[in-house]
Specification:
It is an enzyme of class 1 (oxidoreductase). It catalyses: a hydroperoxide + [thioredoxin]-dithiol = an alcohol + [thioredoxin]-disulfide + H2O. This is thioredoxin-dependent peroxiredoxin. Belongs to the peroxiredoxin family. BCP/PrxQ subfamily. This protein has 5 helices and 9 strands. The protein is globular, with a radius of gyration of 15 Å. The strands form 3 sheets. Strands 5-4-3-8-9 form a 5-stranded mixed β-sheet. A two-stranded antiparallel ribbon has the order 1-2. A two-stranded antiparallel sheet has the order 6-7. The protein has helices at 48-59, 61-66, 79-89, 102-106, 148-158, and strands at 18-20, 26-28, 36-41, 69-75, 95-97, 110-115, 118-123, 126-130, 136-140. The protein has a single domain (18-158), classed as Glutaredoxin (3-Layer(aba) Sandwich), CATH 3.40.30.10.
């Protein structure tokens, strides 16, 4: 029996990843060595909460850059949906597609959800902050969108 995959934990090394992003490039954790990285995991492109969250992170992108931090958005949506989402809302953060849910699971952002009395597996709205040394500095589970990007920026500036 294979060992269970390692799940991100505060203080531990961030799990490596390599995923396709909008525009066709591939992105990996090592691309961000020596800088802080914010990864926000969102359930579905172009839905109201996910749109507000992505717009908020885009609005603050210059502030994140000034704090030596990059921002990535990740969902299980296919690249075509990510690119449509980016274009429709003029999003300025890279959007990664994790169709196999490997990164989502490694970062604890995939699990059981329920809606309208039905239980299913899906993306759990989660944000992870990785420090410049590649360690998980903070994880936000069960994210409420309003004010979240601003709170993450405060934490980025603090570490």
């Amino acid at each position: 029996m294979a060992p269970a995959p390692r799940v991100a934990a505060e203080g531990a090394k961030a799990p490596a990843f390599q995923l396709p992003r909008d525009g066709g490039a591939t992105v990996s954790l090592s691309d961000y060595a020596g800088q802080k990285l914010v990864i926000f995991f969102y359930p579905r492109a172009s839905t109201p909460g996910c749109t507000k969250e992505a717009i908020d992170f885009t609005r603050l992108s210059a502030d994140f850059q000034a704090a030596n931090a990059a921002v990535l958005g990740v969902s299980a949506d296919p690249l075509k949906a990510q690119e449509s989402f980016r274009d429709k809302f003029a999003l300025g953060v890279p959007l990664l597609s994790d169709a196999t849910q490997s990164m989502l699971k490694a970062y604890g952002a995939w699990g059981e959800k329920s809606m309208y009395g039905k239980t299913f597996e899906g993306v759990l709205r989660t944000t992870v902050l990785i420090d410049a040394k590649g360690n998980v500095a903070k994880i936000w589970h069960g994210v409420k969108v309003d004010g979240h990007a601003d709170a993450v920026l405060e934490e980025v500036r603090r570490i």
